[in-house]
Amino acid sequence: xxxxxxxxxxxxxxxxxxxxxxxxxxxxxxxxxxxxxxxxxxxxxxxxxxxxxxxxxxxxxxxxxxxxxxxxxxxxxxxxxxxxxxxxxxxx
Length: 92
What we know:
Layout: H1 3-13, H2 20-31, H3 33-49, H4 55-82
């Protein structure tokens, strides 16, 4: 593991086990699917149905954002397969 990764991990770990409530909240945020995807979906639905006057322009922006996200995911996966493998610092 390089020094950059080590410094980030050490900084983040200083908050671990300091507050039981905080630790349980972090675990809850990482395990609840509604928090991870539901907030984004609620924002997309709000943008889709919010304004009757600029409906066509707003929906065009929502579709563009979804398309850009799909392209970014595909590009990231392509890079993951094309570049050399690097083990995550947690597993090293």
